[in-house]
Amino acid sequence: RMRMSLQKYDKCIAERDEAVHQAEIAVKPVVKECDKCPVPPPCPTCKPVSCPPCTTITSHDQASATTSPPCRSTTIAMNISEYIKISTHDKRFNILDWEQFTPRHVLSPHRTKPRMNLGGATRAETDKAISFASKRVPHEFKFHHGHTRVHPLFGAEYLLDFAAKRKDGTQGLQFQRVGVVRKFASELEMVPWHTPVAPDATSDDTASSKNATLFMIMPLSGRVDKLQAFLQMLTSAVPLGTTNTQRVHLTIVYYKSNDHTADEHEGAVDDITAMLRTYVSLGLGFRVVRATGPFSRGAGLELGATSIAPASLNALMFFVDVDMTISHDFLFRCRVTPKPNERVYYPIVFSLYQNHPSIVKEMQNAGIWREYGFGMLCMYRDDFMALNGFNKTLQGWGMEDVDLYDRAIKRFDVVRAVDEGLIHEWHEKICDPNLEPSQLIMCLGSMTQMEGDKLLLGNRLASARMELARMKGVAA
């Protein structure tokens, strides 16, 4: 695995160097060619030539002039940022991740610990960004959490979320987002991420992403008891309600469990429906969709997306699993981050190791940030349909999420960010040995990575070896 990682690293370095080299070529001056002259396709390294008279490019370094009709100008220059975007943006792991931070901690998949103290120059810089952004929101809004990344072309970027108690007295918080950027060697300035003050809870501004109903879609087979736990978590941790800033609708796409008869399957559907009805008074809308055939997460999510009524509604969707723990502030980010026909949100969730509780304060040795996981996402239905949904030809584990992500980053701005508000609970995973080799490798890698911290597993292995050596010594 280490050899494969080094090979991947070398490949990434080579691709980056090639992109920079091509970008340096692409910003050469404009080349002019003629309407009717037999001009070969201009090479990016050709020198600019005069026109008229028409010039035929014969090499990179020289040109021969001929007489001919007037010429037209063809611009092939491209700035470096645009070139690198189209050259490398569609590579799966070239998306720049956002780190999440609070007033005291930073959470990142790239640091030695999942959660680390925020101090030193990083603390001083984030404090300046927070102070700058706080002047753009009402005084009752206090900083809650933020995301940051350093973009090599633009500078230090911040998405800062401020929270305040709801004015109408209902439970929960209201949020505002402010985006700022510190360009290299320059001062902070506003960027178009500012979230205006939310309207009163009685308004019906469904055109606003902050106030639209959030449609959660969950494929499920069996595990009714786990669904009950999910609903209890959702209604206790997340203040739902009929107010438009808290509308949540849950669609369960239910597949027949392998160990159920047809009658038992119908009974399970009835039990789920009755269970969901008990949460309607708490503000949860719901729908149960029957799915046929073997369980397929991708097909189930697509069925749930197409079942949202009315069909003309460009619904804001959140694809979720029953093993997730969700916070109230995550729902805000899920609402405010996607933008129709422009931006989708792929949060990086924290996955717990085996034998760890659901609520984790100290993340050290408790789990990992799931950088390779692309199953949780927030996006609008029209954007999902513009990608033609999931690839129906893929069968088995995992690949449908990766395939959708690969297509999304070619069409939309993908926000890939660490999110403490999403925690994936450990559950037993079984990898079908009949999977395609690439899928089997992904499944086994995911399964083994969730067994525990590498240091802990290494200590267990060392202890087992010592015990085995001791037993051999006793037997001798």
Work out the strand percent.
15-25%
Cα radius of gyration in angstroms: 27 Å
Strand order of the largest sheet: 7-6-5-8-9-10-11
Give a quick account of the main beta sheet: strands, pairing sense, barrel closure: 7 strands, antiparallel
Count, helices? 11
Distance between the termini: 37 Å
Structural class: alpha+beta
The mean pLDDT is: 75
- Which stretches of 5+ consecutive residues score pLDDT under 50? 24-89, 196-207
Helix content: 25-40%
**How many extended strands?**
20
What would you call the shape? globular
Overall description:
The chain contains 11 helices and 20 strands. With 476 residues, the chain is an alpha+beta fold. It has a 7-stranded antiparallel beta sheet with strand order 7-6-5-8-9-10-11, sandwiched between helices. A 5-stranded mixed beta sheet has the order 14-13-12-15-19, with helices on both faces.
